[in-house]
Design brief:
Length: 183
Amino acid sequence: MGEDVQSRGWQTQDRFLELHSQWLSVIGEHLQDEQGETLEYWRVEKADSVIILPIQNQQLILPPPTYRPGLGEKTLDFPGGRVPETEKAVTVVPKILQRELGITPETISRLTPLNSQGWAVNSSFSNQKLFGFVAHLEPTVQIPAKFIGGMYPINHDGISSLLNSLICLQCRAVLLEWWVGLL
């Protein structure tokens, strides 16, 4: 990070904390800005994320609500997960859909990325990028009932209802990015 910061007139003075786990790294640094002022900055480095909008027969399909420790409750979210360093976002999509909807990769008739570079997630605090995909599923494939948490028709009322049910900002952003592209 120091080199990128320096190229914009900022300089890393020191790194006073580095904490690493398998899921994230927390880094505390002192940075000197263009005016010479030293500022304390904290950042989190995490693997990139993928959120998938599964569509079958003109309906968006969501898995059952999942417990979110940060909120202390279960929330309705689109299928998603982390992208391991050794993989590309597109390669994890079938694995995520298999884990969260119980479907095999062959059931995906078309996979469309919503972005190719990933959107920055809280760029002041994190290096994480978010990749969005739309996965069109074969119309005759049966998704086991235990994997279905919600089905929403792809129309104004269905999207409005879904937006009222989603509290995850990343899920909402991917949904709206896709929906606005259709209008």
